[in-house]
């Protein structure tokens, strides 16, 4: 930044106006996109409230430095779950393991710290939203153009990829580490075809594919902040878009209309950190609508703090109930992951950056001088996916003729030239005397559902989060299949001459040994969803039904919508970043269209 150039136009609680047309709560992945779209008309006034800072530094754009959920806390919120009844902790006991959840706390949210993966999922995913959840207008035909609206891909394919949007994504032409290419060849030999474009709407529900990443033409991270609310846009709209950072919404303000309808009239703001004596709480009125984009933990938290949620829980906490909405904070889902690990050559592993200082120094010089090298390489580059019913009892894909009956994958295997287990909490780690390589086996369609609850009426008090991993026994079946497929990939890679020694793998492939491993060597993948799910209010399939309708309006409340991953009817069988922005695009389209 030049010495006399204008900085990012951040606002404080004291400097914002008394009233706005729209208030967007949460400047994360979806919130940045929504604030951009709502502030496009010149005659509107939009307030974006974000609990974190802007924090735009050079390191925050370098993929390897910035892909860090477990960071120092300046850009993230860490929330620890309750002990998980079905997981085994470091002490070897079931029910002692906790899970640390991380979400972004910065403009751009989790898109500033994630693995930058851009995948949309197959059309059948969204067709199920419409047919099964009753979300009219959310089938593939209703959302595909919304993915394209924001996209600026490195290639243009009619109806598949666009180049007119703000959000850059691309794929790497070559794998950086040999192990990725070996995994592709192994998958192909097993009968899982190579998919040229992971975002093609016509590819089968089984195969292997290079991943797409939200990176720019210089291989730097291109988050929702960089795409939708960079400094030039924020400055050009500073008269109609106010970005209020380091601020939380403590609760929504409501009143009853003459007909008894609950109406949102504004928000109560406070400092992110309690004890900032120079910052006072204040109320801000809204003329049209408040939209919650605070994420799968923040959005239900704000609703419950405002008296909107499961009545019995709110009464227990001491909050006056204004709307009994049982699905608020229910139906929490995540893509549960299980790791198997191997030792490989150090030169073919990311671990070399940690254990060999000269390697890190060389790569740093390559980046600083030539803008190339390992620091710009995404950790995850490849996905192998299928439906577990297409695999036989040895994990071999011998039933792919049944793909017509199973249009969506339910397992994904992610090769990684690094450790993928949650070592600090599981105690399971690959020996680091050699290079490390792992397969993260991901459950794409979990049956288990958890909850988010308040611990106190204090908006800064920790939440009570229970992912309830493996609470539904049906989740073990596809995970066993994924582990067996991983071991078949290992076998093929070895047969091709790729040296990989078993390090952290199950004792055997018997169901009981696989189940024990699933309970031990697991982790979150940070894909939290569905705590304010969209659908019919009386949907008996899901606890409490739903929170928002197909227009993202909170059931029974006027002037309030939600637009983030919390509204997904269930966790989608894909990575959640791109669908979150699609939801924001859909929300903006409906609001500006008067729907």
CATH superfamily of the largest domain: FAD/NAD(P)-binding domain
Percent of residues in beta strands? Answer: 15-25%
Kindly give the count of domains. 2
Overall pLDDT score: 95
Count of DSSP E strands? 25
What oligomeric state best describes the polypeptide chains here? single chain
The portion of residues assigned to helices is 10-25%
Shape: globular
Which class of the largest domain in CATH terms?
Alpha Beta
**Class from helix and strand fractions:** alpha/beta
Uncertain runs: none
Q: Report the CATH topology name of the largest domain.
A: FAD/NAD(P)-binding domain
**What is the straight-line distance between the termini?**
42 Å
Any idea what the radius of gyration is? 23 Å
Count of alpha and pi helical runs: 15
| CATH architecture title of the largest domain | 3-Layer(bba) Sandwich
For the report, how would you describe the main beta sheet? Answer: 9 strands, mixed
Describe this structure in words.
The protein is of the alpha/beta class. It folds into 2 domains: 1-55 and 106-170 and 214-333 and 527-595, FAD/NAD(P)-binding domain, CATH 3.50.50.60; 172-210 and 335-449 and 463-523, 2-Layer Sandwich (Cholesterol Oxidase, domain 2). It contains 15 helices and 25 strands. The model has no long low-confidence stretch (mean pLDDT 95).
Question: What is this structure's SSE topology?
Answer:
Blueprint: E1 10-11, E2 19-25, H1 29-38, E3 46-49, H2 63-66, E4 76-80, E5 100-104, H3 123-131, H4 140-150, E6 151-153, E7 167-169, H5 178-190, E8 194-195, E9 207-210, H6 224-228, H7 231-236, E10 241-244, E11 247-256, E12 262-271, E13 282-292, H8 295-305, E14 308-309, H9 311-317, E15 323-324, E16 337-344, H10 352-355, H11 357-370, E17 382-386, E18 411-416, H12 423-426, E19 435-443, E20 451-453, E21 464-466, H13 476-495, E22 501-504, H14 511-520, E23 522-523, E24 557-558, E25 560-562, H15 577-592
Parallel strand pairs: 1-10, 2-3, 2-13, 3-10, 6-7, 8-9, 12-24, 13-25, 14-15
Antiparallel strand pairs: 4-5, 9-17, 11-12, 12-13, 16-19, 16-22, 16-23, 17-18, 18-19, 20-21
Helix pairs in contact: 1-15, 3-4, 4-15, 5-13, 13-14
